[in-house]
Specification:
By secondary structure, the protein is mainly α. The chain has one domain. It contains 10 helices and 2 strands, in the order H-H-H-H-H-H-H-H-H-H-E-E. A two-stranded antiparallel sheet has the order 1-2. Helix 1 runs antiparallel to helix 3. The chain is globular, with a radius of gyration of 18 Å. It comes from Gossypium raimondii. This is Fatty acid hydroxylase domain-containing protein. Keywords: Membrane, Transmembrane, Transmembrane helix. One of its GO terms (molecular function) is oxidoreductase activity.
């Protein structure tokens, strides 16, 4: 039982540490104008919330989420993760659980995200907090209203964990991966050779279209694939073009009707 509790704590707190480490990596590129999707001036002028308040909000959310996560791990269980308690999951089993969890999380977050945009009350009082970051950056990836964070992240995470049948140890890897992906999507940087940009169409430029260009109608998918946007007709393709003053700009190929 001690090992199970240890795994639950690791699964709860490792993704939080990963969030700040990976955010710090991307923020170190903040002065490299040739890699930015928006200029530093845009980031300073167009965002509607200070970085100090973003940090406070994120730390508060992580405190609440970590507390709830520990409770949920105890309630849901999955200590064996579908495998014998005396043997760890095989790579094949873990890969299958990853795929299931990715699909479940993407499905939940797409429809909740779209719903929070389309219902004026939910957008005005909750989701608009996230869109105060008109020009997103790494450590603002989970800047949200606490209620939205509960619906999107806690419930979505609990569903992906329970339906996939992964163990707490496997979930540590999965949620750390999902955290890195979310930070990457909001980093505001297009870094050459980024594997996320190579293997995922849902990337920092794709999500930037949602934040900055006709964001209320398109590119709701997060954090992994773009399948639901394509299926539901909310996919907006873009071209990535170099700005004369340095950096890149994601421009929609078709304009919103």
């Amino acid at each position: 039982m001690a090992l199970a509790i240890s795994d639950e704590l690791l699964a709860t707190f490792v993704p939080i540490v990963v969030y700040w480490i990976y955010s710090a990596f991307y923020m170190s590129f903040g002065s490299f104008d040739n890699y930015r999707l928006h200029s530093k001036k845009d980031e300073e002028d167009k965002n509607l919330v200070s970085k100090a308040n973003v940090i406070k909000n994120v730390l508060f959310q992580q405190t609440i989420q970590s507390t709830l996560a520990i409770v949920l791990y105890r309630v849901i269980g999955n200590e064996g993760g579908g495998a014998s308690k005396s043997q760890p999951n095989s790579i094949t089993v873990m890969a299958g659980q990853f795929i299931i969890a990715m699909f479940v999380l993407d499905t939940w977050q797409y429809f909740m995200h779209r719903y929070f945009h389309h219902k004026k009350f939910l957008y005005r009082h909750f989701h608009s907090h996230h869109h105060k970051l008109v020009v997103p950056y790494a450590f603002g990836a989970i800047y949200n209203h606490p209620l939205e964070a509960f619906v999107f992240d806690i419930i979505g995470g609990a569903l992906s964990y329970s339906i996939s049948g992964m163990s707490p140890r496997t979930s540590m890897y999965f949620f750390s991966f999902a955290t890195i992906k979310s930070v990457d999507d909001h980093c505001g940087v297009w870094l050459p050779g980024n594997l996320f940009h190579i293997f995922f169409n849902n990337n920092s430029a794709y999500h930037d279209v949602h934040h900055y260009l006709y964001g209320g109608k398109y590119n709701f998918s997060q954090p992994f694939f773009v399948m639901w946007d394509r299926i539901m007709g909310t996919y907006m393709p873009y071209s990535l073009e170099k700005r004369a003053e340095g950096g890149f700009e994601a421009r929609p190929i078709k304009r919103a009707k």
